[in-house]
Amino acid sequence: MPHFLVAESETADERDARRQHTGKSSGESYAATLEQLRPDARITIVAPADDDAEVYDATEIAAFDAVFVTGSPLHVYDDTPEVRRQLSFMRNVFASRTPSFGSCAGLQLAVAAAGGTVRKMPGKLEAGLARRITPTDSGRSHPLLAGRAASWDAPAIHGDEVERLPDDAPLLASNAVTTIQAAEIRHDGGMFWGVQYHPELAPGEIAVALRRQSDDLIEAGLADTPEDVERRAAQLDALHDDPGRRSILWALGVDNEFAQEASRRIELTNFLDHFVATSADRSDHQHQSNAPLPA
Q: Whose CA is closest to 160, among 125, 114, 129?
């Protein structure tokens, strides 16, 4: 049975606010997705930003099969106690050499912990969908993006972005809005795969996020009125309820790469397939380990 550690990037207040709107914190959403992908997994959720959080050192993190770092409104360039605790946790993840995966703020946190930089996006947001994400030359052959189309759309909502990757961190995918959409980071013996978008989220969860940030979307020029935001959110809700509805696919300008759950989750599935053995694999390994040596 694999044991996963899911690290909330939200503060306690942010977790409570998200639960009021969606029923789950970011960590709880991540855990629910992982439970669907690996029903045999045991999952522990931690909140490293909290001042009373249990502190996991590298040795303790090494006992897990994988670490997942969620998105959040966290700004990793802010020098606050919450950010410092998050960065300390991520450095321990790298030092533990446990494979890790993160989306949105999770990618930004790993970048900052490994020596790269993150910034507020200059005068813009990427919200609802990240359009036409395209792999780099390195990304085309990288296992994180195995099975991806030549370009694809993905759930996204962020106002910060990676400005500069750390050393030994190949860029794997980009689009016209955000240069660094996917990357691999090797640091202090550890391995991290991350994306700026949200493979763990369903369209309905993105719809909730749009409604919560309606004023920001209007200020950024992505919508003219609250009714515009509500119209897009309602389309995402409709896609959530009926992924094959052609009129909604047309209205949103997406295909099955976005609409179908398995396609949205390709990066998470690839990470699990690459780094985390299945129950059958572990059973086979145990059987081989217990087999008598040849005479």
A: 125
Q: What is the mean pLDDT of residues 180-201?
A: 97
The backbone torsions φ and ψ at residue 248, rounded to the nearest 5 degrees and listed phi first, read: -75, -40
- Tell me the C-alpha distance between 134 and 152, whole Å: 7
Among 33, 106, 64, 63, smallest CA distance to 268 is for: 33
Q: Tell me how far apart the alpha carbons of residues 218 and 42 are, in angstroms, rounded to a whole number.
A: 41
Q: Are 46 and 80 in contact (CB under 8 A)?
A: no
Residue 95 near residue 136, CB atoms below 8 Å: no
Pairing type for strands 126-135 and 117-120 reads: unpaired
Distance of CA 136 to the CA centre of its chain: 19
CA atoms 208, 209, 214, 217: torsion sign: negative
Longest Cα separation, the chain: 78
SS3 percent helix, strand, coil of the chain, rounded to 5, is 45, 20, 35
CB 57 within 8 A of CB 101: no
**Per-residue pLDDT reduced to its tens digit, 278-288:** 544 544 443 34
Q: Two tokens at 40?
A: 């045999």
- Count the residues in the chain: 295
- Global pTM value: 0.91
Q: Which residues of 96-122 are buried (b: 16+ CB within 10 A; e: fewer)?
A: bebbbbbbbbbbbbbbbbbebebeeee
